[in-house]
Amino acid sequence: MTTMSRSIVVRRPVRQVARVLGDPSVVMAVIGDHGRAARVEAAGDGAEQWEVFLVLGTMYMGGRVRIDEAGDGALAWHAVSGFQHDARFEAAAHGDDATITVHFQFRIDGLLTGRLAARLVRGYIGRYAESVLESLRHHIEYGETGRQ
After folding, report:
1. Dmax of the chain from CA atoms?
2. Does the pLDDT at position 114 exceed 80?
3. H-run or E-run covering 106
4. Cα dihedral 130, 132, 133, 136 in deg (nearest 10)
5. Looking at domain 2-142, which CATH architecture does it have?
6. Please, what sign has the CA dihedral across residues 109, 110, 111, 112?
């Protein structure tokens, strides 16, 4: 598994940031502004499933994800089909402000080519994560953003 983490400081109290991160519809709407995200269904145990596709250059990468945790300042999911990955957004106090951190793990098969591809994809996903974090920060600090 390849791991990537990015963080951003949000100039709002951690309580407010945690409330936003705990709402999958808000976070997925921001992700959808940078790719495509649509709620598919609720699983039998109440967990939500979403189709999430990231635009990486000229290609879409993604698939169906199952939200494992939503609330208490965190949102986490794992892939159930498509690109195999796990993601976790979490809020933490940073003085009077808050920090949002996203942790992303993914797997690309193959010995040599898999490692080379993972390095390339890690860079793409890192830039994508920074863009999503900036959009989340802007949404929390200034209100509604993105496509309406």
Report:
1. 46
2. no
3. strand 97-106
4. 160
5. 2-Layer Sandwich (3.30)
6. negative
Encoded tokens for 66: 């199952």
The pLDDT tens digits for 54-109 are 877 777 788 999 998 898 899 999 999 988 899 999 999 999 999 999 999 988 88
φ and ψ at 76, to 5 degrees?
-135, 145
What's the token pair of residue 51?
A: 């189709």
Residues contacting residue 15 through CB under 8 Å, at least 6 positions apart: none
- In the chain, where are the structural domains located? 2-142
Give the list of residues 6+ apart from residue 127 with CB closer than 8 angstroms, or none. none
Q: Give Cα 103 distance to the centre of its chain.
A: 8
